[in-house]
Amino acid sequence: GKMEEITNVTEYEAIAKEILPKMVYDYYASGAEDQWTLKENRNAFARILFRPRILVDVSKIDLTTTVLGFKISMPIMIAPSAMQKMAHPEGEYATARAASAADTIMILSSWATSSVEEVASTGPGIRFFQLYVYKDRNVVTQLVKRAERAGFKAIALTVDTPRLGRREADIKNRFTLPPFLTLKNFEGINLGKMDKTDDSGLASYVAGQIDQSLSWKDVKWLQTITHLPILVKGVLTAEDTRLAIQAGAAGIIVSNHGARQLDYVPATIMALEEVVKAAQGRVPVFLDGGVRRGTDVFKALALGASGVFIGRPVLFSLAADGEAGVRKVLQMLQDEFELTMALNGCRSLREITRNHIVTEWDTPR
Ligand code: FNR
User: Fold this and answer.
1) Is 312 annotated as a binding residue?
2) pTM of the entire structure?
């Protein structure tokens, strides 16, 4: 059938587009405004080429790594994305099971259509919780404590969303959460629903509930309400890298929110090296945005990332084939990455170096 014929991650998008209601597909696929950064997140990977090393014994290859002390099968993890039950009835449960079957980490979104407790009940697995900071700090404190109790191992604090980016498809579609779903983590406190407005319903929800005054002192505040390590998600500059480390971040995620927030920021793979240099090895640096191939993963690691996260491929494969789809996405990326390592002469992640790539912005050697 159709699903067996899929040979790479991007092929799921066309299937998802056929299956999903237009409002849902557009919400998942879109970027902000001109979507320049959306295209750039992909295009930039093509400006990096390999300098493979030959005649290295690559009969055994080790993809395993450790993230915040947790051993996982590969440096490929699942980024938080909201409202996964719009893609498939099993939504976040399917994603959680697929991540755990692949022995990798899933970050659950604050705006999941399944609660932290429900996702925890799907079985064992290493999971992080993505946090949006609400104006009502009691809401935040309770939610972080619930995530901690449910066994989540870290907080990914999203810092690029004081207001929602202008996603024009969502405005045209008057995007809102379908009536049979809720933002499950907020169900009991009357924040689980989104009004239908003549704008994007999500943009209105963010304007009403999310704290636009969030600042570095709040990163410190967060450490007073939880002992979980904090990853700062949405860093694109050396300046903010240094501030994040000063504020106590345990790690940094170089992210432009899948090009859904500020348009005309650089592709994440273009910003990565600046952040890695500023971090000076003091905390691990991760990347998300446009990762669709094993070669992309290798390039990110060669530029100093400790691992990558994938967003849309999870949503599209979930829509097309539920848990099996997400499993296959993770498997295909793992296989491609392993092959990329072999063909570059690398047997472990440690052996991937800056000299295995050349970028368009490198000066000729
Ligand atoms: C996201 N992303 C996101 N990030 C976050 O911190 N909290 C969230 O709730 C969401 N929700 C969300 C929904 C959808 C539909 C998308 C596409 C993305 C951003 C996500 O974590 C990640 O940064 C990007 O998706 C990575 O880029 P790619 O892999 O989608 O290109």
Assistant:
1) yes
2) 0.98
ipTM > 0.90, yes or no: yes
> What is the rounded distance in angstroms from the CA atom of residue 343 to the CA atom of residue 36?
32
CA of 344 to the centre of ligand 1 (A): 30
Instruction: List, for residues 311-361, the tens digit of each pLDDT value.
Output: 999 999 999 999 999 999 999 999 999 999 999 999 999 999 999 999 999
Backbone angles phi, psi at 263, to 5 degrees: -75, 155
Is 356 marked active-site?
A: no
Q: Which atom of ligand 1 is nearest to the CA of 291?
A: 29
Express each pLDDT in 41-76 by its tens digit. Answer: 999 999 999 999 999 999 999 999 999 999 999 999
Q: Is the CB of 109 under 6 A from ligand 1?
A: yes
337, 103, 70, 238 alpha-carbon torsion, rounded to 10°: 40
Catalytic residue chosen out of the listed positions 88, 227, 257, 356: 257
Would you say 255 is a known binding-site residue?
yes
